[in-house]
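From the shared-data thread, chain only:
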Amino acid sequence: MPKKASKKKKVTPERLMQFGSAYAPPLIIGAAVSNKVFDTLESGGKTVEQVSKTTGASQRGLRAIMNALVGLGLLKKDRYEKYSLTPESEAFLVRNKPGTLGGLFAMASTHLVPDWLHLSEAVKTGTPPVAVNREATGPEFFSVLVENIIPMSYPAARTLGQSLGLAKTRKPVRVLDVAAGSGIWGIALAQQSPLVRVTAQDWPAMIPTTRRITQKFGVADRFSYVGGDVLEADFGSNFDVAILGHILHTEGEDRSRKLLKKVFAALKSGGTIAIGEWLVNDARTEPLPALIFAVNMLVHSERGDTFSFSEIKSWLEEAGFKKARKLQAPGPSPLILATKL
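Structure, as tokens:
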């Protein structure tokens, strides 16, 4: 009997059509944050008319985005046309909550999307419309960004502190937070023991932001500051821990390799380096968020990229580190730890 002909899976344009409007969700969420939709609903369910009265936004505009948010699973709507928060939006989109991502979505239309509109030109030339990795232009961008991405880094930083056993330490622990930004990596470690002291390094124009946030978290008295470019600033020496929280992807390969050697020199024997990154696999075929982030680096930096664990491990070994390993932690990828023996 002849073999039954195998049926080929029919190719449809559905997935591409979905991609065609993929720009919309972050802008819809950002518009809702900016118009205080989630904040207004924190106290309970409300109609479009009630939200309009509280926020001053138009009923037409609110109805459009709030219905879309229902479709996105970020709002619920009952039979009385009252909208309410879901557990997800209540936890992460109300602006006064400690884990809020509202600010990140609110800045999508002002700080992120405008540069992405120049992607075709960036692909052609290999250069970004505005390079935020430069000291002349970077602080204006990062002073807004760093506070809004605290919820992405804080849980991972807490996990790092726990893995280092900081809560049980009986001796002073000196931490170097490289390109500290908000300072959240050092802050999370300082919260785990009064014996932790942090040296936060960043561009001079970023340090006021770091100071303000360390004060907000109540650990400012255990921070000191070093201003300058990462490859030029005097880090000092004899640190127990050095943190590079999502720094290498902006620096690119050449500067990252130099930076790791410099950090190695700043650590004491037995010290630990901890690296947060958006890791790709060796073939650069997954995970998708890290692959997309590499395009974000094309749009926003001159040399930036995303890297694999194998690549960063080889750079660490080149710098003199041993025992490069992954630490599972909340966030886009595992942390990378290595030791100066």
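The chain has a mean pLDDT of 95.
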